[in-house]
Write a structure and sequence with these properties.
Strand order of the largest sheet: 6-2-1-7-8-10-9
Shape: globular
Oligomer: single chain
Largest sheet: 7 strands, mixed
Bound molecules: S-adenosylmethionine
CATH architecture of the largest domain: 3-Layer(aba) Sandwich
Distance between the termini: 51 Å
Structural class: alpha/beta
CATH class of the largest domain: Alpha Beta
Mean pLDDT: 92
Strand content: 15-25%
Order of helices and strands: HHHHHHEHEHEHEEHEEHEEE
């Protein structure tokens, strides 16, 4: 343990042991080890307070009195282990986050594929950590802005995430009105309608033609990927930031391997492609990469 982690560790035993639930250094290390091995999530000691507050909700829900007892439950129950991982994930997202990616998708990827798609050829996109669905639906809206009849063509967007709760949310396709502020007004007017099942008319539902383009599935990026692609574009944004460098580089390489020649990889604003994937990809703008090869679709 470095002096820095030692200091933080004693801060944990001091501050967190006096909280609602006993939380020891050993508890933190066990939870961090599981998060890393199961989901790639790297939890340095600086995240101890965050871990405590996110998992305290699980302890309350289960009527458990200490983190030591919670660790026993997690050891014995695959279901609680998955719930723990889901509780530790950060799901912040929004429609058209980092709008330059959607502009690039529209002009550099989808526009050149229009004729090919209309002739019946496949167009495949992947949102590789889709959270509650705003990212894959922004991709779908971008496609529809260029190919309004995309739902009747062989155009599909795969949307995956580790956390089953966010996948279910995305599949439902319902959002509060104030979440749609970044959706261009013309697309908002055309592709969203008030959700008649919601009280007060504050919830909007994504239109069926948008929903039918997107297929949501649970997928842990650390596990096997049971699909071959290839993809015209992959969004893998603001997820590998939680992984260590070696894991990041493995993910970049696997993603690059699934891209079509000249396909695009979009990554988070604070992320950089590293490792062997650099030999397969070239930069094509801010946090945007293209699979090396010819320029024609
Ligand atoms: C901050 S959100 C990013 C959402 C979206 N890509 C964006 O940029 O707005 C990170 C997502 O990564 C997911 N995640 C974390 N670890 C994962 C893993 N090992 N496999 C798949 N998804 C993971 C989380 O559940 C969360 O929904």
């Amino acid at each position: 343990m470095t002096p820095e982690t030692q200091n933080s560790a004693s801060a944990i035993s001091g501050a967190l042991l006096t909280g609602e639930f006993a939380f020891s250094d050993a508890n933190f290390r066990e939870i961090a080890r599981i998060a890393k091995s199961e989901a790639g999530i790297d939890l340095p000691y600086s995240k101890a307070t965050l871990v405590y507050s996110r998992l305290a909700k699980r302890l309350r829900a289960l009527g458990i009195r200490s983190f030591s007892d919670y660790c026993v439950t997690v050891r014995e129950s695959d279901e609680e282990r998955n719930s723990m991982i889901a509780a530790l994930t950060t799901n912040v997202t929004r429609f058209f986050r980092e709008p330059h990616h959607f502009e690039h998708l529209r002009t550099e990827i989808i526009a050149p594929l229009v004729e090919s798609a209309r002739r019946g050829n496949r167009v495949r996109l992947w949102s590789a950590a889709c959270s509650t669905g705003q990212e894959p639906y922004s991709m779908a809206l971008t496609v529809l802005s260029v190919i309004p009849e995309a739902a009747s063509l062989d155009v599909r967007i795969l949307a995956t995430d580790l956390n089953p709760h966010v996948v279910a949310h995305g599949r439902k396709g319902c959002y509060q009105k104030d979440e749609l502020g970044d959706v261009p007004p013309a697309l908002r007017a055309k592709w969203f309608a008030a959700d008649l099942e919601s009280a007060g008319g504050t919830t909007m539902r994504v239109a069926d033609d948008v929903r039918s383009l997107v297929s949501f599935h649970e997928l842990n990026l650390m596990g096997p990927w049971n699909f071959k692609g290839p993809f015209d574009a992959i969004f893998c944004r603001n997820v590998v930031i939680y992984f260590d460098r070696e894991t990041q580089n493995t993910i970049w390489k696997r993603l690059a391997g699934l891209l079509k020649e000249n396909g695009a990889l979009y990554i988070g604003h604070s992320e950089r492609v590293g490792g062997p994937a650099n030999a397969l990809l070239s930069s094509d703008g801010i946090t945007t990469y293209r699979k090396k090869g010819g320029r024609n679709p």
